[in-house]
Amino acid sequence: MATSSPPVIWACPPWRLWGARKTGRAETMATVLLVGAGNMGFAMLKGWAKDGGLRLMVVDPTEALRDRAAAVGAEVYADVAEVPRETDMIVLAVKPQVMDKVAPPYAEFPGAVMSVAAGVGVARLRGLVGERPIVRVMPNTPAAIGQGMSVGYAEGADDTLRALVERLTGVVGETAWIEDEGLMDAVTAISGSGPAYVFHFIECLASAGEKLGLAPELALQLARQTVAGAGALAREAGEAPGVLREQVTSPGGTTAAALAVLRETGALERLVNEAAEAARDRGRELG
């Protein structure tokens, strides 16, 4: 594992200064450095850009990714050596496989660290960026449209730092916290990877529509909007999913016939369980 430089010591941690700068109306300026502007990083960045009270800096070696980050108002840098050391929060949004190479230079920057890399635990992060508050967050890609789900685990974080994390995650969707870091791989399996499962179900439903004779465009429209509408209803109705399922299932009707196939011998539930376990186990391997 790469060794980190000694941590920077500051008289007053910048996240506490951020807390002191809060007003009765809204939070004031906080400086956030995003390391890695790939799909997940950029999804979050687009939400942060709407906050209006964040100074956003992005470092990424890929010009195209820097260009799109600049387009939403971020200051962009190709290399860590170019970045001003004026950070309240450093957000590590790089792949777990390159974390050991990418993270150590940021040990010399002030601020807390928030990592969104699957499978990379707090102990490993501390070995890379030094002794400071570290927050692990597992977001998901619907953050790009403000409909994300982010789950955080904070070690050594006070209420002020948690508030900053919730500010960053709140503008891109809902936020929840866990107190046991060991559950983060399960979170990754359900909400982190979950959008891909839903997208695959949309593909399967649209394909089924085509096989029943529907035009591809119509089949995709029906599948996409049905899943979107059902998800919105599940969130807004205040009823358990099972109750909503029963409400649309008339005895002896078409839905009942379809559900009898989906639920036969518990095959669908078993597949979902096995998929989630595979994702969880892979997360553990990455850590």
How many helices does DSSP assign?
12
Q: Kindly state the number of beta strands.
A: 8
Q: What percentage of amino acids are in beta strands? A: 5-15%
Question: What is the average per-residue confidence, as pLDDT, rounded to a whole number?
Answer: 89
What ranges have pLDDT less than 50 throughout 5 or more consecutive residues? 1-26
In CATH, the topology of the largest domain is named Rossmann fold
| Alpha-carbon distance between the two ends | 12 Å
Family: Belongs to the pyrroline-5-carboxylate reductase family.
Organism: Algicella marina
Protein name: Pyrroline-5-carboxylate reductase
Pathway: Amino-acid biosynthesis; L-proline biosynthesis; L-proline from L-glutamate 5-semialdehyde: step 1/1
List keywords for this structure.
287 residues; alpha/beta; Rossmann fold; eight-stranded mixed sheet; 8 strands
Would you kindly provide a written description of the structure presented here, covering whatever features stand out?
With 287 residues, the protein is an alpha/beta fold. Helices cover 47% and strands 14% of the residues. The chain has two domains: 170 residues, NAD(P)-binding Rossmann-like Domain (Rossmann fold, 3-Layer(aba) Sandwich); 95 residues, ProC C-terminal domain-like fold. Strands 3-2-1-4-5-6-7-8 form an eight-stranded mixed beta sheet, with helices on both faces. α6 links the parallel β7 and β8. α7 packs across α12 and α8 packs across α9. The protein starts with 13 loop residues before the first helix and ends with a helix. 33% of the residues are buried.
